[in-house]
Design goal:
heterodimer; A: mainly beta; four-stranded antiparallel β-sheet; B: mainly beta; globular
């Protein structure tokens, strides 16, 4: 199972772009990279998933370099409601996988 | 709408009591998981099940037990052997794209149960 490393915390301001990087040096060929968002007293919520290069959806972009040893979650023009903990998860795409979560990045957005 | 339902949302346990947390999913997912989260901490895996009638211990299984008699259900029992059970418990399920009703690419979480020992 690939181990992930993320910054413990980050601060930013409303309207800014926030980039959170996750390191996963021993990622396997069949592993996908998924990011989750968690608010206090709630379950994590899926944000975005990718395998290589760039993926974009309505809330975020995910950048994955060719060696796939890291990934960067990009949140455009953050607001106060983006204050949450963000988890990077590396696991095989198929079901029946043992999921191991890292400690996550606590993102605080200020007015 | 498909998803995972955890109940109850809040649970209080007296010392020495066993309590059971419910987790039900209608996503037709094969795999289900239980995590524990302590204040300000990440998620730690308690047990997971890849298929009906089979389950494996995670990193912190001591003091917990599970069963998987139906694909849709994965209840967690916190036994009296768990010395510090006060925590937030999260259930999750995973399936491949196209397997039943998946809302995201594999892993869906419930809304959690907060267990407090009184």
């Amino acid at each position: 199972l690939a181990k992930t490393t993320q910054p413990i915390s980050m601060d930013s301001y409303e309207g800014q772009e926030v980039n959170i990087t996750c390191s996963h040096n021993n990622i396997a060929t069949n592993d996908y990279i998924t990011w989750y968002q968690q608010f206090p007293s709630q379950g994590p919520r899926f944000i975005i998933q990718g395998y290589k290069t760039k993926v974009t959806n309505e809330v975020a972009s995910l950048f994955i370099p060719a060696d796939r040893k890291s990934s960067t979650l990009s949140l455009p023009r953050v607001s106060l409601s983006d204050t949450a903990v963000y988890y990077c998860l590396v696991a095989p795409y198929s079901s029946a996988s043992k999921i191991i979560f890292g400690s996550g990045t606590r993102l605080s957005i200020r007015p | 709408d498909g998803g995972i339902t955890q109940s109850p949302k809040y649970l209080f346990r007296k010392e020495g009591q066993n309590v059971t947390l419910s987790c039900e999913q209608n996503l037709n997912h094969d795999a289900m998981y239980w995590y524990r989260q302590d204040p300000g901490q990440g998620l730690r895996l308690i047990y997971y099940s890849q298929i009906v009638n089979d389950f494996q211990k995670g990193d912190i299984a001591e003091g917990y037990s599970v069963s998987r008699e139906k694909k849709e259900s994965f209840p967690l029992t916190v036994t009296s052997a768990q010395k510090n059970p006060t925590a937030f418990y999260l259930c999750a399920s995973s399936g491949t794209l196209g397997q039943g009703k998946t809302r995201d690419y594999g892993y869906t979480f419930g809304s959690g149960t907060r267990l407090t020992v009184v």
